[in-house]
Amino acid sequence: MWLWAGLAPRTAREGGMKKTGLEHLGRRERQIMEIIYRRGRANAAEVLADLPDPPTYTAVRGMLRLLESKGHLRHEQEGARYVYFPTADPDRISKSAVRHLVRTFFDNSASSAVAAMVGLYEDHLTDADIQKLEKLIDRARSKGGAS
């Protein structure tokens, strides 16, 4: 599931600095972006291997070039292959995705979203995880976020 609404990397094409959000991408393009964000970098063969119901290798290469022309990816050459990297900061991407998730599915309620996450992973939370969550809540409380 993609959750990058509102992100707008710059493109060098179409007027120099046109903004295009990832929410305007097609399903396959979003899947490719998710793979590259998860991996941090990937070549066409790696993307192809990770895609569900993959298209042809040539189609993947074409979509990577298209995503690059839209400003979402950049590439570097390593030997005979191009390796693709996202152009937007992954931290910015994840924060935007979380904002979108909370706004869309939890009526903009951070506490409802956190409760859902804790409920989903309660069997997997370590003592260190719980301590970290407690510290985050204490920090939010000290900043006046709760009374």
Write up what this structure looks like.
This protein is mainly α and 147 residues long. The chain contains six helices and four strands. It has two domains: 10-86, Orthogonal Bundle (Arc Repressor Mutant, subunit A); 106-142, no CATH class. It is 52% helix and 11% strand. Strand 3 (73-78) and strand 4 (81-86) form a beta hairpin. The chain is elongated and about 55 Å long. Residues 1-20 have low confidence and may be disordered.
Short description:
The chain is built from 6 helices and 4 strands.
Features:
mainly alpha; two-stranded antiparallel ribbon; disordered N terminus; Arc Repressor Mutant, subunit A; 147 residues; 2 domains; 6 helices; two-stranded antiparallel sheet
CATH-defined architecture of the largest domain: Orthogonal Bundle
| Shape, principal axes of CA atoms | elongated
CATH topology of the largest domain: Arc Repressor Mutant, subunit A
The separation of the N and C termini measures 35 Å
How many domains? The number is 2
